[in-house]
Design a protein that fits this description.
heterotrimer; A mainly alpha (about 120); B mainly alpha (about 230); C alpha/beta (about 375); B: about 230 residues; mainly alpha; Ribosomal Protein S7; two-stranded parallel sheet; two-stranded antiparallel ribbon; 10 helices; globular; C: about 375 residues; alpha/beta; Rossmann fold; five-stranded parallel sheet; 14 helices; 11 strands; about 45% helix; structural constituent of ribosome (chain C); transit peptide (chain C); Ribosomal_mS29_met (chain C); Small ribosomal subunit protein mS29 (chain C); ribonucleoprotein (chain C)
């Protein structure tokens, strides 16, 4: 008589009826994402600053000779600030430019709220 | 007992909130202006007013309520916005009259110093001497304006002094503050207008303590150039 | 109408002065435009109505001799340094008094002129012009730059030896003697004025008959204890000399009403306030303004700032009080007024020439005129920060 294969294995399978599955977390994706890793790399004025430093070092810290570099940096910085300002304002309002692939968490959340999962 | 007290506080706090909700006073924006946001900012400078008139802009804003000018803004030809701002920087404890008198005396001293130079120099050299104290103030401020500033930033538990570009308004403020601080560092017997006049003239020639302070800052920024990228990441 | 034709006539005559002035100026500085606001007549002895509303310049050495120890107002002194010249506008009150001085009879008691007006209208500067006139016409000057200084800021006090109950101000008196000597030493040594009586100051120190006045003044400067009494004597001697026709004297006192004020910072031994009437210097200068001598001129200025107790009005009757009015009576009040529009324009032109104000539009000037209400001091003040 061949021994029962189930008796040979080390552990018999659990009885499903005895141990029912209990989901700890809900079995669907949330309608929300966190903004923790949302910091994108901003295009800063690092290049302009380095140009300015180079110029200043060359001219022994006489700014009158680096007016071009200073001007460039100022333009870049004010441009950066204004861009950031408009982006922030847009985000707060939830405006999304069509075809935009880089969405912030706020924008995504707005989307997800509109089209909830399940 | 303590629990009872916290309970009481909660209840009263709720009551307060309820009250405000009813009256609708709470506003999240810090708008302390006396005038509602529908009011627009007008101009008190005659040349700008004429410009508005010529461009027809005046017709458009004719029926929009306009905020009044401040009491130290005049449409006189002697009005200068930078002088007004500088007066406010000199002012301490709200003593505007004192601040204005100090600046006027400073201008007088500047004029006297420059005029004495003017009278004692040759005809060719006279054309190079600037006699207008307002122009000297403008030059001095322009010469003291920094381009970069150091800002402490915490990265990996270490505070780095990061060179950061600054806005125009901040730069103008720093220039004015440095000139005033340089003027205040004096002996007790010397009056502020005398020292301030001297500092202004020096700064207008791209010399003096305020200008040196700016250059020192720039040198420090240059020394910390390795941390510049922290501003952008 | 009369005034109009007068001013028209004056214009024509002053036009000649102007053309003449331009020609001379042109040699000095070729680049400068013709200066219509100046006259080259720098000798006030020749000043007439033709020179009115023009600037004239006091030579630096004369300025130093006359006003080294006071006389020019504080602000004006600064202007002199900044402008590198001491120029004064020839104005109506000064010209008026000069014309009276020219026409008066010097065998009679001296004429008294009282300059009065609001604060900052140019009373002291008019006085400066008149002092310069007196200097140019070789008069002995008895000049008090600002009488109130003695009573509000006394430097030292002492009980008078001669007059019981009076207070001497030894240092102030000596300082005034220095001022007097500085102004008059050339004329005094030239005229060779001498003391006419014997004076005994102490057992050892005496001034005998026939000693030069300068010697007595020097004695007063060195022995300040007797300075107050020496001023008394000096003034009596000068009165005597004027009466005898040895010299003619001009008295110029600024802030004259301080002598009749009740206010004083001087205290006696019992810490009680000593009014100006009990100060020996007051007696000396009230003595010289009496009418009991001749061959002299008395010009005084009354000012609101010279008293601390009476400041409601600038009129001489009010400022001098009854006592002072009776002391000065009869006198000729001369009102010094604010600038006329002509004068204002001349002053503005002068300031522009001295670069005190630059690139100022007509509207801006009008603004300053309205703001200062044509007051000379206020106009000067409003121009400082520009």
């Amino acid at each position: 008589m061949r021994p029962n294969i189930q008796l040979l294995s080390a552990r018999a399978p659990q009885n499903i009826k005895k141990v029912p599955f209990q989901p700890i977390l809900p079995m669907a994706l949330r309608n929300k994402v966190s903004g923790k890793y949302d910091k994108q790399t901003e295009g800063g004025c690092l290049y302009e600053i380095s140009l300015l430093f180079a110029c200043m070092q060359k001219n022994a810290f006489d700014e009158s000779l680096c007016s071009h570099e200073i001007n460039n940096l100022n333009v870049c910085y004010s441009d950066y600030l204004s861009k950031r300002r408009t982006r922030k304002a847009d985000q707060e309002k939830g405006i999304i430019t069509p075809g935009e692939k880089n969405l912030t968490h706020l924008q995504l959340n707005k989307f997800l709220k509109r089209f909830p999962n399940v | 007992m303590a629990i009872f007290r916290t309970l009481l506080r909660q209840v009263t706090f709720q009551k307060v909130l309820l009250g405000t909700k009813r009256s609708g006073v709470i506003s999240l924006t810090n708008n302390y202006s006396l005038f509602p946001s529908t009011f627009i900012k007008g101009t008190f400078i005659p040349s700008e007013q004429n410009k508005l008139k010529e461009s027809g802009e005046l017709q458009k804003i004719a029926h929009i309520p306009i905020k009044p000018a401040f009491n130290d803004e005049t449409s006189s030809e002697f009005y200068d916005p930078i002088v007004r701002k500088f007066t406010n920087y000199i002012m301490r404890k709200g003593k505007k009259v004192l601040a204005r008198n100090l600046l006027e005396k400073t201008f007088e001293n500047v004029k006297r110093i420059q005029l004495e130079k003017y009278n004692s120099s040759s005809f060719e050299a006279q054309t190079e001497i600037e006699l207008n104290p307002t122009v000297i103030l403008h030059q001095a401020l322009a010469n003291c304006k920094p381009v970069l500033e150091l800002m402490p930033m915490r990265r990996g538990g270490v505070r780095y002094q990061v060179p950061v570009p600054i806005r125009e308004s901040r730069s103008a403020f720093l220039a004015a503050r440095w000139i005033i601080e340089a003027a205040k560092d004096k002996e007790r017997t010397i009056h502020l207008p005398e020292k301030l006049a001297w500092e202004l003239i020096e700064a207008s020639k791209n010399q003096g303590r305020a200008v040196r302070r700016k250059q020192e800052l720039h040198k420090q920024c240059e020394a910390n150039r390795a941390y510049a990228h922290y501003r952008w990441s | 109408m009369v005034f109009y034709t007068q001013s028209l006539l004056r214009r024509i005559t002053s036009g000649h002065v102007r053309m003449f002035g331009t020609a001379l100026e042109a040699i000095k500085v070729p680049e400068e435009p013709p200066q219509t606001f100046r006259t080259i007549e720098n000798n006030p002895a020749n000043h007439t109505i033709d020179h009115m509303n023009r600037f004239y310049t006091i030579a630096p050495e004369i300025q130093k001799q006359l006003f080294q120890h006071g006389g020019l107002t504080k602000f004006f002194q600064k202007q002199v340094k900044t402008f590198a010249e001491c120029s004064i506008l020839i104005r109506q009150p000064a010209i008026e008094i000069i014309s009276y001085i020219r026409q008066s009879d010097y065998s009679k008691p001296p004429n008294k002129y009282v300059l009065y007006g609001e604060f900052g209208v140019g009373k002291s500067t008019t006085l400066v012009h008149l002092i310069h006139y007196a200097f140019a016409t070789r008069k002995i000057l008895i000049h008090v730059p600002w009488a109130q200084n003695w009573f509000s800021r006394p430097r030292e006090t002492a009980n008078s030896i001669v007059h019981e109950g009076n207070i001497d101000l030894p240092i102030d008196a000596a300082a005034w003697l220095v001022h007097f000597k500085n102004q008059n030493h050339y004329l005094l040594s030239e005229l060779d004025l001498r003391v006419t009586k014997d004076y005994a100051w102490s057992h050892r120190e005496t001034t005998s008959n026939g000693t030069p006045l300068l010697e007595m003044i020097n004695f007063g400067i060195n022995r300040i204890k007797f300075a107050s009494e020496i001023i008394n004597v000096l003034i009596n001697e000068l009165k005597e000399a004027s009466r005898d026709g040895k010299c003619s004297t001009m008295v110029a006192i600024d802030g004259y009403n301080a002598f009749f004020s009740e206010y004083s910072a001087i205290r006696d031994d019992n810490k009680k306030v000593v009014p100006p009437s009990r100060v020996s210097l007051t007696h000396a200068f009230l003595n010289i303004t009496k009418s009991d001598w001749c061959n002299g001129i008395i010009v005084v200025a009354v000012d609101i700032l010279a008293t601390k107790d009476r400041r409601e009005s600038y009129l001489p009757r009010f400022l001098l009080n009854k006592e002072g009015f009776e002391h000065m009576d009869p006198f000729l009040p001369v009102h010094v007024k604010n600038y006329t529009t002509d004068e204002f324009e001349i002053i503005a032109e002068y300031y522009k020439n001295r670069k005190w104000i630059r690139d100022i539009s007509k509207q801006g000037l009008r603004e300053l005129q309205l703001l200062s209400q044509n007051n000379p001091y206020k106009f000067m003040e409003y121009c400082t920060p520009l």
